[in-house]
Amino acid sequence: MQYQKLQNIYYKDEKIYLQEYEQRFQALFTKHFDFEIKQFNHRYAYTAFLCYTEELVVLLEKIYAENQKLLVLLNKTPDVVLKQFCLLCIIDEVKASNDIEGNHSTRRELREAMENISNKNRFVSTMNKYKMLLSENEINFENAKAVRAFYDEFAHKEVIEDNPSNELDGEIFRRNPVDIDSGTGKTIHRGMYPEEKVIGYMETALEVFNAHDIPVLIKNAIFHYMFAYIHPFYDGNGRTARFMASYGLSKNLHYTVCLRLSVAVKKNTKKYYKMFANADAELNRGDLTPFVIEFLEFVYQAVIDTQRLLERKLKQFVANVKVLEDITDDDITSKMYVLLFQASILYGQGLTVAQLEKQLGKSRNTIMARFSKIPKEHIIVNTVKKTNYYKLNLLLLRQQKS
């Protein structure tokens, strides 16, 4: 049976609505949180709670089942292809997260940040944090000060460059109030205020984020809502919350899935923002169960999307690798063609000579000697900050097959 929002029940029958709220709030398997939710410009605040329902359990089961299928697929994926695929996922994820917030970025700008071509690139720190997910490094989110320290490295500099007035001015977070509007100038939410309250509620939210008695995917969903409700920064709240969600989810799901969460959200941004509005609504009386269900649906979609993308790229790779190997009898040149093909269909930036040296285990002189014998029309060269990036011209494959 589909879990209904309390506000939907209210419009059908107010008496049943009150009974249903009491039953849910007092139920044996309901989890309560020391966190009050109050809709902007409304009178009452309600304690946040979650009902462990059959629908939640089934959804978790579906996510883990599809994640297992993805793991089987990943085990069949060559290491070099997987590395390039992960870099592609990071670019897609950061681009999608920026787009959701209306923060303009280009794929080229993000690829340059990924390569640390210039420390003046505003996204270098953001890309470095996402690359940490690949190494499964631990990130400290123990308390409010740790969240501030992370934000300083992750987004604060970029936020200030976009608008100096958004620099944090409080003990840990912001000192002044901040409103979130609907895009038409109408305020739909006001972040917590004063800062003392922001800090206190953030500590409560982090207790959920770090809890050992709440399933990982569920606690990440709850924290995601709480973080947005608190709104600790003047700007950059959304991208920070989505990174923390990806980091938290990586504890139970493969990191490629966690690098496609914002991609899934971007496909239905309207639903994403509606989730928060519904959870805020006074008529829902602090019931976070619908929010958690809908958040997990985004996670499920991220798993499915990751599977499909990887399957498509692997199919493309397998279908063409034999063609590439047959272009030349020289083993080193043949391997170069394959690597440059991967660079074209996956990450997209291309490979430097240094990267080719490392992957082939050959010297620069050997690589350049092979390049001199490859027809120029077979290769696309992009020059960025005096560094050449090489990738295969995919038109070559059409010519070889025709």
**What would the CATH topology of the largest domain be?**
Fic-like fold
Which CATH top level class of the largest domain fits? Answer: Mainly Alpha
- Main beta-sheet annotation: 2 strands, antiparallel
Report the end-to-end length measured between terminal Cα atoms. Answer: 55 Å
Q: SSE order, as H and E? A: HHEEHHHHHEEHHHHHHHHHHEEH
Category from helices, strands and their pairing: mainly alpha
Structure summary, number of beta strands = 6
Overall radius of gyration: 24 Å
How many domains, in number, for the residues?
A: 2
The 3D shape can be described as: elongated
Averaging pLDDT over every residue, what do you get? 92
What is the helical fraction, as a range of percent? Answer: 55-70%
Spatial order of strands in the largest sheet: 1-2
Percent strand: 5-15%
CATH homologous superfamily name of the largest domain? Fido-like domain
Q: Enumerate how many helices there are, as a single number.
A: 18
Secondary-structure arrangement, i.e. CATH architecture of the largest domain: Orthogonal Bundle
Low-confidence stretches: none
Description:
Helices cover 61% and strands 9% of the residues. The protein has 402 residues and is mostly helical. It folds into two domains: 6-308, Fic-like fold (Orthogonal Bundle), CATH 1.10.3290.10; 326-401, Orthogonal Bundle (Arc Repressor Mutant, subunit A), CATH 1.10.10.10. It is elongated. The model has no long low-confidence stretch (mean pLDDT 92).
Layout of strands and helices, then pairs:
Elements: H1 6-12, H2 14-26, E1 30-38, E2 45-51, H3 54-75, H4 79-101, H5 107-114, H6 124-135, H7 144-162, E3 179-181, E4 187-190, H8 195-209, H9 216-230, H10 237-249, H11 255-258, H12 261-266, H13 269-280, H14 289-325, H15 331-345, H16 353-360, H17 364-373, E5 379-384, E6 387-392, H18 395-401
Antiparallel strand pairs: 1-2, 3-4, 5-6
